[in-house]
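Thread: NDP complex, take 2
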Amino acid sequence: MSLYAVMGYPIGHSLSPEIHEAFGALTGLDVRYERREVRPAGLAEALSAFRAQEGRGANITVPLKGEAYALATRTSARAERARAVNTLAWQGGGWFGDNTDGAGLIRDLTVNHGWSLQTRRVLVVGAGGAAQGIVGPLLDAGITHLAISNRNPERARDLVAACRDARVGVADTGVAGASPFDVVINATAAGLSGDLPALPDALFEGAIVYDLMYGPKAQVFLSHARAHGACAVADGLGMLVEQAAESFLLWWGVRPATESVLARLRAEVGAA
Ligand code: NDP
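Output below.
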């Protein structure tokens, strides 16, 4: 029987096994999916061991998405654009690398929440692996302006340059008065340590605010946004489920329905 896994460090709290097993139950497929702790620089060795056990596909999470991109023998256009891989599939004797994070975010925003991105002005806070994965799909979703802000400004400038799109710029977050953004997306890891990325409070007024983190770790940012006038807020649980559905489609050729899985996880994780 073929084996699937999520690899990263730390990995203990990953919900991916639960999500993929639930998709298996919904689609009638016999899914065997494990968590594997893999430290930085350890992915090549972990994948060799995984192949020896009939490993057919892996989700790759922090901090290994760049390593997975370098190790993939072929990559999808969206992985190429992100320069990061979150899904590996064993195909034709090598690892095919894809990036489903952006597609997962767009589907959560537009389908699950019903928020159109057409003509929106969007701020992405963060310039790490997650931000790299979402900027291309956001641009494809019809937004008119994308600003990127990051604690380390050089990384924000690099990501802007890599986008090669006139709609993208480094954020000027020194606003007074109405927020220049319709949508604010927190793609930083600040919530892991209970921190807020440094942003003016006025940025949240009237904006849709989304945090890629989910559950209690997203609450620092989302509560702050609510308190400063956000018109709607959401955490990244829907994105997590939707990016998993895209990986499942790549591996099994069928896209599972996500509503019941998302509802079950929401009950476990708590409100957004
Ligand atoms: P990386 O380690 O690649 O990047 C971390 C980013 O967070 C950098 O931009 C970093 O800034 C910033 N950052 C970290 N700490 C702080 C802080 N205290 N204040 C301000 N900025 C900070 O991580 P990823 O980009 O891969 O992941 C970011 C988050 O997104 C993770 O928490 C992850 O769980 C979540 N995520 C959720 C997904 C989902 O499906 N819901 C999918 C992918 C990611 P600097 O460059 O200055 O260090």
